[in-house]
# Entry
Amino acid sequence: MNQSSGPGARRCLNPRVITLDRLTKVFPAPGGGDPVVALDGIDLHLEPGRVHGIVGRSGAGKSTLIRCLTGLEKPTTGRVEVDGTDIAALDGAALRAARRNIGMVFQHANLLDSRTAAQNIAHPLEIAGVPRAQRQQRVAELVELVGLTGREHNHPAQLSGGQIQRVGIARGLAAEPKVLLCDEPTSALDGSTTRQILRLIADLRERLGITVVIITHEMGVVREVCDTVTLLQDGRITQSGDLLDVAADPHGPLSAELIPLPPAPTGIDALVVNCDYGNSARFRTNDDLIRLAETYQAEATLVAGTIETIGGRQVGRVQLALRNRSGRPISREGLTAFLTELEAAGVVATEVTA
# Structure
């Protein structure tokens, strides 16, 4: 279930923690060909204390966006602002200082094998010149925060995949950043461990009020933990908004991926319709649809469907097989009336087969 922003978010006073304004990144093509437009006019404003997912296929521009956010790439044009600081305008020591407001968590934690978990967590603090006693205190806090008590003296080879990722998260939080940027944080983990890490991320947001940006191609991650989501395609934003609104929009490019409809069985002697009731105030469950069909002297059988609860509300995409009382397909007149009433109530309904 999607987590709503919690008490930690309300402690943040800055109305926007990340602002991307007309962000463009163009790379010259090798060999003098046409330049490659990796990011094309990105406008994105993220509120503090929320978990935001950025999704897109390979080549959509996600990696370039990360590098611009962290100052590893300078935009061709546009502004990259994190916690009120224009990252794109900084260099040298000023840029390194600004980066401390951005914690990074990677798909593979890339821990130093020669160091213990605690020493890996302390590493960015050593680089920043934090005194030893202060480092030890901060590491002890983080070990407890991410659930690694008793494992802090283990080396990476002695840790499970989930524990290694917890070390990576703790390391990303070491400098008390305002933003935690997670690049495919669960792609290398099994399903059970993925759920544990996502629960940890949600808990950290609640307890710390930190803003989390998750770069992922896994829609399950977005459904589980994100408040808002943005779809990148060919370097452009094609959809962005609150997760519930995006999932409930049957005409948007992300709806079918967030709420996928499994294939219906073949050979059904009935009229089959797709029903998407994410935006309907009247129809919130499959039973509502089935009861309406009964008013048209039809029996509705659910033959395929996906139901997700997002923000405490059900969002569903289902296929119904409609038959009359004798077991034959519902009449064309009955089908037309049924679809018309659904559409008037905000359900997007389309016939699949006859």
About this structure: The longest strand covers residues 298-310. The chain has two domains: 7-101+177-256, 260-353. Confidence is low (pLDDT under 50) at residues 1-14. The two ends are 36 Å apart (CA to CA).
